[in-house]
Amino acid sequence: MKNKLTILLGTCLSFAIIFYACNSADTDKKSNVSEVTKADVNNASEPSVNYLSEGKRIAGEAQAALGKNLAAAINAKGTVYAVEFCNVEAIPITDSMANILGASLKRVTDKMRNPENQANEDELAFIKKMKGEMQTGKSPEPLVVEINGKMVGYYPIVTNALCVKCHGNKDIDIEQPTFRKIKALYPSDKALGYSVNELRGMWKVEMNKKEN
Description:
- This protein has 212 residues and is α+β, with helices and mostly antiparallel strands.
- The chain has helices spanning 2-12, 38-42, 51-77, 79-101, 121-135, 164-167, 176-185, and strands at residues 33-36, 104-108, 143-147, 150-158, 199-208.
- Helix 1 packs antiparallel against helix 3, helix 3 runs antiparallel to helix 4 and helix 4 packs across helix 7.
- The radius of gyration is 17 Å and the shape is globular.
């Protein structure tokens, strides 16, 4: 049972337990934002670069690194400790992966646990769009926008069965020791009340535009 829990929680990492790394880019200021469709991405002035796919690869590798480290923390001391681990280690791990992968990485949400991850106005609109897609039975579509000369990809993070152990109904899904730890570390937490297969937020991947 413990092994099953570890595997599930590792896959949940995308915003489970903390949600959270913040990079240095200041996107709270609205500035020169234009959405880029899949066709635009593939037919831009840099035709050899598929920014949508490149951002997806980067987000996937970062998520895998976080999941691996979280699974190790659970194996070592259990899920309550995992909350502490994520509080301290998730940002350094994400920043390290950003350096390795050559991109700025952040996760954003409309229901933050860490205040640093509150989505800005443009990002809230993208989250609303993805939620609307899910309400019609579709999978939420990632997208790429150009912001101040950078290509920025947004990739949906959807809850699974174990995510609700830290983000579900506090009286039903979350064990009380875990809930007490969450409230102690995140007194302004709003990341509760989720069910399975809901949009928890987005990975944000900021990429430099490639030269021809």
